[in-house]
Design brief:
This protein is mainly alpha-helical and 128 residues long. Helix content is 82%, strand content 0%.
Amino acid sequence: MFYSLIASSSAGDRILEWIDFAALAIEILAVMIIVVAIFYAMIRYTLRTILRPGAGNEYQALKVRLGKSLLLGLEILVAADVVRTVALEATLASVTVLGLLVLIRTFLSWALVVEIEGRWPWQPESEP
């Protein structure tokens, strides 16, 4: 109902355009975070392995950095999908697609946490 009230006026059209622009900006931010973090992590890994070979477990640090940046990017992408779906396309089909996207991204997030920490999120941390 709210959507139909807003969409019926020129001011409402501008508001919907701004919401669409905001969702797009959030998606671009998420992609930029992921891309920049990948380049940063790879450059750091390369420099550390060249300058200090055998000094530590740089591969594990690379995996952690990449995993954390992917987790952040996925969370921001979910936020963009929520904004777009709730504000612009509040139909049963779009909400269903949003639910599937959130489910898939949640599974990916859990898989990344398992890869980074070596345990399921509900398992207690092992002592070093």
